[in-house]
Amino acid sequence: MTKAIMLQGTGSDVGKTVLVAGLCRLAANRGLSVRPFKSQNMSNNAAVADDGGEIGRAQWLQSLAARVPSSVHMNPVLLKPQSEFGSQIIVQGKVWGQAKGRDYQTLKPVLLDYVMQSFAEISAKADLVIVEGAGSPAEINLRAGDIANMGFATRAGIPVVLVGDIDRGGVIASLVGTHTILPAEDRAMISGYIINKFRGDISLFDTGIDAVRRFTGWPCLGVVPWLKHASRLPAEDSVVLERLARGGRGVLKIAVPVFSRIANFDDLDPLGAEPDVDVVFVPAGERLPADAQLVVLPGSKSTISDLMDMRAQGWDGDLLAHVKRGGRVLGICGGYQMLGRKVHDPLGLEGHATEVAGLGLLDVETQMAPEKTVRNSVATAVADGSLLCGYQIHLGITEGEDCGRPFAIVDGKPDGAVSADGRIAGTYLHGMFASDIYRSRLLQSFGLSGETSDYRAGVEKALDDIAAELQACLDRRWLDELFG
């Protein structure tokens, strides 16, 4: 049988995604055929898998770490929040339906069959599968029908390693509390725990390890220091946007409004990695900075709702003032749709509003349609002929006068639109900033030198560095057994 291990957290955002990626790279470096797996993910940051269809970008990153093609079976259930109460459900890469939170609970037994089918598919191609949980197994109110944590682990018979985040405090209580409230069957699945995000002298936690063992009997499998290289990896969860530093000293300031349903915000990561660029994510309640040279309207899972919210925040006025000052604007996917004159949704695919006025900065209109475009793409920027590699995930067709000046030629067809003066542009292509030549020429257009790093090589180097750190700090006997 294929060996497998599952990392579950004592809470959300404890660093499971990075640990799984690091373990995948470490296993791959040891010559193993390793695959990542996450049965259920909730995120509007999606990627297009190499075999077609949507998966969470975290699993796409983990497949990169494992040095294998990404597959829809690595993340068989993806929930994409569309409102405060409901999400679009993606199953094995394709839109399966929509459900509100309470209704979704009744669907889990059906979805578990898809999960087990995908796990079997992944396991058949691997020596080792490293599974990432979601949220926390301590959420016992969600245990019935669970497919993301202990429900999956017990069904698949996979040992579990708990991950606790010491940086947020209370890690001993979170581990001991998890042990206390788990039912015996679930508790028996846990083989040990990892302390993550430790700062300072690790020996100071020796007495903490003794305390956890005294209360739980679980062995500590390692104390992982704060992984500084993790900041060079694409972020999955929009919660990180709340912690991003602002007010840097970059020569070029790029403002990005944080929509309530922001999607694929990691599009901006390659620009944020450049030393002369300050990418400012602007949260609700704050104004777009007046000294920004470029405003990027990012993707959105709910264009109409976020467009209405943009007006409520006053960002539409800020954007118009930015344009009057001579600033430039780029809209990506949902952000592109917002730049037009109108967005039509006659079938109510995004909610109750069937038509809303756009920002009017491009002479285009968007018609929402049921068919979803999901594909990896190769493109050429019209402005400078540079090669772009990216992907598309969107609903809707955008047409109008400004489409006569396309932003790019994508898969052999014109895509996007550019205003007559060239300062306003929109495109459906995600991921284009990762194209080094295009990014270099973009920076040159703002008066910078255009000397850029190899972004993909930087991500690969970060994965290797994280793998090396895990090799040094995790229990050697446990690693040898896992990889043996």
Please write out the topology:
Blueprint: E1 3-9, H1 16-29, E2 34-37, E3 40-42, E4 46-48, E5 54-56, H2 57-66, E6 77-81, E7 86-91, E8 94-100, H3 101-123, E9 128-132, H4 150-156, E10 160-165, H5 171-181, H6 184-187, E11 190-198, H7 206-216, E12 220-225, E13 252-257, E14 262-263, H8 269-272, E15 277-282, E16 294-297, E17 299-300, H9 303-313, H10 315-324, E18 328-332, H11 334-338, E19 342-344, E20 355-357, E21 365-381, E22 387-399, E23 408-410, E24 413-415, E25 417-418, E26 424-427, H12 436-445, H13 455-473, H14 476-483
Parallel strand pairs: 1-9, 1-10, 2-9, 3-6, 10-11, 11-12, 13-15, 13-16, 16-18, 18-26, 19-21
Antiparallel strand pairs: 4-5, 6-7, 7-8, 14-17, 19-20, 21-22, 21-23, 23-24, 25-26
Provide structural commentary:
The strands form 6 sheets. The protein has a 6-stranded parallel β-sheet, sandwiched between helices. It has a 6-stranded mixed β-sheet with strand order 15-13-16-18-26-25. Strands 19, 20, 21, 22, 23 and 24 form a 6-stranded mixed β-sheet that branches. Helix content is 30%, strand content 28%. The chain has 484 residues and is of the alpha/beta class. The relative contact order is 0.12. The chain has helices at residues 16-29, 57-66, 101-123, 150-156, 171-181, 184-187, 206-216, 269-272, 303-313, 315-324, 334-338, 436-445, 455-473, 476-483; strands at 3-9, 34-37, 40-42, 46-48, 54-56, 77-81, 86-91, 94-100, 128-132, 160-165, 190-198, 220-225, 252-257, 262-263, 277-282, 294-297, 299-300, 328-332, 342-344, 355-357, 365-381, 387-399, 408-410, 413-415, 417-418, 424-427.
